[in-house]
């Protein structure tokens, strides 16, 4: 058996994915709209298969359809992806030096976190130099309800989105201190709304206190947050007050560096 015979057959799913990418790339290169026939001729996709792909892409808003001209063009979902990528790059460029400054000034581990679906994701971190410290990793995701950054983001969400989250969330104990009833979580969020500061006192990781503040990411539906994390053996009222002050300064620095909106 030669190499060509041993090559696994291309699955229908892979072929469809390739064709979707071909369609998007064709329209991006074209810089304008094309008809069903023009797309089919350019890419060699059978008419029935192309009809199905185009219908799905229009439904998901990756393509727009002009009924008067019977043409297809790139849709708003494509531009939203591009905008989202640019937004994340800007956020990281603004947040990275502030996270480093927070870690140096507070002497504890710090992070910048963003909303990812119904979870909070660490986007950049700076470690503490103390022998006993909480270690964080970029890309880790956690429930919104058990972490300081998550609660800060949750409290800063548009009301409708927060209500939808609270309606559907299943509160599961991460530690014995985790809020496992909506009444407790709502009370915590009210306190965050009043003070602007969110806490996780051993609610996600035993023996660890997180202190966070929400920031305007540029996307009203997806606020982000800075937080400072400290082992509870070093957590004191004086340290708490210092962290609240530093987090307020971090938010001011971030917003000062943001493009005018």
Kindly, what is the distance between the CA atoms of the first and last residues, rounded to a whole number of angstroms? 64 Å
Portion in strands: 15-25%
Report the CATH topology name of the largest domain.
Beta-Lactamase
Order the strands across the largest sheet as they lie in space. Answer: 6-5-4-9-8-7
The CATH superfamily of the largest domain is known as: GAF domain
Stretches where pLDDT is under 50 for at least 5 consecutive residues are: 1-9
- Structural class assignment: alpha+beta
What's the count of strands?
9
Describe the structure.
The protein is an alpha+beta fold and 261 residues long. It has 2 domains: 3-74, Arc Repressor Mutant, subunit A; 85-257, 2-Layer Sandwich (Beta-Lactamase), CATH 3.30.450. Helices cover 49% and strands 19% of the residues. It is built from 9 helices and 9 strands. It has a 6-stranded antiparallel sheet with strand order 6-5-4-9-8-7. A 3-stranded antiparallel sheet has the order 1-3-2. Strand 8 and strand 9 form a beta hairpin. Residues 1-9 have low confidence and may be disordered.
